Amino acid sequence: MALSSTQTDHLRRVDAIGDPPARPTLVPAERYHSPAFAQLEVERMWPRVWQVACTVDHVAEPGDYFEYRCGPYSVLIVHGDDGVLRAFQNACRHRGNALCTGAGSSLRELKCGYHGWTWDLAGALKRIPNRKGFGTVHMSEFPLAPVQVDTWERLVFVNLDTSAMPLADYLEAVPTDIAWCGLGDFRCYATMTIAVDANWKTIADGYSETYHVQTLHPELHRCMDDVYAPQMIWGHTGKSESLYGVPSPRLSGALSDEEVWDAYVYTQGPLMGVAEGTPFPRDQQGAGQSVADVIAAQIKQFAAGRGVDIDWATTDQVMRLHQYNVFPNMTFLASADHLTVMTSLPGPDPDRGELVMTLMTRMPAQAPRTRPADVHMSAADAHPGVVMSQDIAVLTGLQRGMHQPGFTHLVLSSEERRIINMHRNLERYLDLPEAERISEAAAGG
Ligand code: FES
Ligand SMILES: [Fe+2]
Known about the structure:
- By secondary structure, the protein is α+β, with helices and mostly antiparallel strands.
- The protein has 2 domains: 5-44 and 176-440, Naphthalene 1,2-dioxygenase Alpha Subunit, Chain A, domain 1 (Alpha-Beta Complex); 51-159, 3-layer Sandwich (Rieske Iron-sulfur Protein).
- The longest helix is centred in the C-terminal third of the chain and has 15 residues, at 291-305.
- The protein starts with a helix and ends in a 5-residue tail after the last strand.
- The chain has helices at 5-11, 35-45, 167-170, 174-177, 200-205, 213-216, 218-221, 257-268, 291-305, 315-319, 386-393, 395-402, 417-430, and strands at 25-28, 51-55, 65-70, 73-79, 85-89, 103-104, 110-111, 118-119, 125-127, 146-152, 155-159, 186-196, 231-233, 237-243, 320-326, 330-335, 338-346, 353-362, 373-378, 409-412, 439-440.
- The strands form 4 sheets. Strands 13-14-15-16-17-18-12-19 form an 8-stranded mixed sheet.
- Bound molecules: FE2/S2 (inorganic) cluster and fe (ii) ion (FE2).
- The site of FE2/S2 (inorganic) cluster has 9 residues, from loops.
- FE2/S2 (inorganic) cluster (FES) binds at residues 92, 94-95, 97, 112, 114-117.
């Protein structure tokens, strides 16, 4: 089978391991289950980092609001009647009641449901019932506490720290790196929140390496290159790239075009609108075309059926998945016709968390606004596709293993360097003493 130019270019790239380190990196397991460590995250990390809270589609019109919760924190995002997006700590200035829960529209003011203190959508206090009982009180003394809010493409981010660096700086090289893809054309159609028995980092780690593909995802391994999957780290952010529609080089030569196609259809058929069991359309394979070329053509045709033109994209732009990680808890997967954002959130204790999948699809520019569906479910009820289900199924056992007395440290490879980088950022925010920072394993025998 001749290699297409996409494949030969690709083979020249560096692999996921890069330069091997002298020794593995050790991360204390207790970071994943200790209540004291989780509490430190709540005090020092979560209130200081940019977090993706929702999409522009959730708060598209004046009067729309969305409550974002992360651990004990609740942030209210409000689309003002002046068109400005604002965010506030979701607490009434009288006795602290939450002003809103969930999401909704047609908000004209923010009225506390307990005693009726009322703010306008810009956070200015307007009304205090029975005001004279408080003595002298000025409305300007009690505005809602502001939270930083900003958007990048159609994602809405918040940061409780009003003096934190701007979002654009926080995202580092990410926006420039993915600019070719036009992510602003993707709209959110649903968010799926899945409750899992795992720490938020256990969840996030699964989206920070491709090392597990050969074992956990045997079907995916037959249709993606997990070897020449170069990684980049910028600071708060990092990325990895992997080409799909090709067999893993570990299996190279062992799989026919039909087998690669079947594996792609089984794991990702909906991306090209093809049902399971659809045979490889050999008649559509031109001379010198690879399976990836045929799949890319199907994806373009499927997009055209929705009124979306991605004819500008090369096979590589359609078939190479760009996975970005943004500290602490966000990853997004993008290619010319694909965008999924995943975040992991802390639960009520360090052994529980939530995986939030923000599902987006490229839409024609003139498409009318639709409100995203917001679905909550347990891990047992969630069926987000064969690969994601495998990722979720492993979490409970991972989390339980972390508690075993003999399991003191995670032992990490340079192939898992985005996990290592997350921990280096985390210990910086937590201001851990030197003795508690991660280290290379001592030279052993
Ligand atoms: S707690 Fe909100 S008005 Fe009293
Ligand atoms: Fe996975």
